[in-house]
Design brief:
The chain is mainly beta. It has 1 helix and 35 strands.
Length: 401
């Protein structure tokens, strides 16, 4: 009984917040990136980690840091990773999960990123010696324009590409066939397009130019959004919310509101404020961001911002469950008036579909904590979504056995 009360004491404050950070990895690891494919692969400072169904497995090749990874359709059992820190072993590798082996595909000093370019159906990787391109992830060719350049980041949207180097920024408006130099001679370590085509970039470190920059013409010209030092990353979610991170305490992660240049911090419940990267989990059927920190990987869901007041709001209570937390069963309720669908989908925190349920005419359904095969699922946090509705109608519940 005392143990149950203690657990409730720890988790109930989280349920009352308008947002919730959840751990997605073991603590105590320095995470740089996460790749979501046939499995979840975490890029860390000494190699990679993945969950084999029972426990987290750590694999290393000379304790080299891994900076990024992508799945490859031609080899579903493996992932392509870029790793290195200036040694003779730096490069692009094929990592096979079943054998836990690394196979070198291309030597590349100080690789910094790997990214799939959907429009061009190719993969780009960049590092100290230039930019590489591959159609399948297994064979690589240098992009001649960037030969000898130190490539730091890439952003892709339709026919527009932007590559940043140690001193300059270059853009292409024809899918990478031709490249031009930006008019602004600025160093950007992280860049991303929003859903409308506006480009955002981080000028890192502590110079007079450090801060968040933007370009509304595909990288030709740039202007500053706000000045700040020690920034590390920028991300734009599916609803065009802009998030920025810092590599030094105490700033952590904040949402940037361009209309009034306001920063709204989302640090409550985040154990570590050293942000190495911000990405998202495409497997979870709701808006989210993922923070890679010096103490593991954490995911944030349940946030929204009023377009009028530009302030943090709790989600509308269209959908809810009682009790929460629960041990044996919980009742999920919703106002069904005007709904085109009454299907409730239940997911685990990794975004895997656990169960589909149908609301009755009163807008109620009970879930007993089992999957489609009527097998009991373990203790944990689960997401439930009213199928066919907007992402803000996704809620959380905690099962404690």
């Amino acid at each position: 009984m005392k143990k149950t009360i203690l657990i409730l004491f720890l988790i109930l404050p989280l349920l009352l917040n308008a947002y919730l950070w959840e751990s997605m990895s073991p603590s105590g690891i320095t995470a740089y990136n996460v790749c979501y494919g046939s499995m979840e692969l975490i890029c860390i400072d000494t190699g990679v980690m993945f969950f084999d169904g029972e426990e987290w497995v750590e694999c290393s090749y000379g304790n080299l840091p891994v900076w990024g990874a992508i799945p490859t359709p031609d080899y579903p059992e493996g992932m392509i990773v870029v790793m290195g820190d200036g040694s003779d072993s730096d490069g692009i590798y094929l990592f096979t999960c079943s054998t836990q082996e690394f196979l070198n595909l291309y030597w590349l000093m100080n690789p910094r990123f790997i990214q799939y370019y959907q429009t061009g159906e190719c993969i780009y990787a960049g590092g100290e010696e230039g930019l590489l391109c591959s159609s399948d992830g297994l064979t690589w060719e240098p992009v001649s324009f960037f030969e000898g350049m130190d490539c730091y980041a890439i952003a892709c949207r339709n026919e527009n590409l932007v590559v940043t180097t140690g001193t300059d920024t270059y853009y292409s408006q024809d899918g990478g066939l031709n490249w031009e130099q930006s008019e602004a001679y600025i160093f950007l370590s992280d860049v991303i397009f929003d859903q409308n085509g506006t480009l955002y970039g981080i000028y890192p470190d502590g110079s007079y130019s450090s801060g968040l920059w933007s370009s509304d013409n595909g990288g030709q010209t740039w202007g500053v959004e706000f000045w700040d030092t020690d920034m590390s990353s920028v991300w734009v979610d599916l609803e065009n919310n802009i998030f920025v991170g810092w590599k030094e305490d105490p700033q952590g992660i904040a949402m940037y509101i361009p209309d009034n240049r306001e920063l709204i911090y989302y640090n409550e419940g985040l154990p570590d404020f050293t942000i190495n990267n911000i990405i998202y989990n495409p497997l979870i059927n709701c808006n989210n961001i993922v923070a890679c920190t010096n103490d593991g990987v954490y995911i944030l869901t349940g946030y929204t911002v009023s377009s009028d007041k530009k302030q943090i709001l709790a989600m509308e209570l269209i959908l809810y469950n009682q009790p929460n937390p629960f041990s044996s069963s919980t009742r999920i309720r919703c106002d069904v008036s005007g709904l085109s669908s009454r299907t409730i989908e239940i997911y685990n925190i990794k975004g895997q579909l656990i169960r589909s349920l149908l609301l009755d005419e009163r807008g109620e359904v009970f879930w007993n904590g089992s999957d489609e095969q009527d097998i009991k699922v373990p203790t944990g946090i689960y997401l439930y979504k009213l199928h066919g509705k907007k992402a803000s109608d996704t809620k959380k519940m905690i099962l404690m056995r």
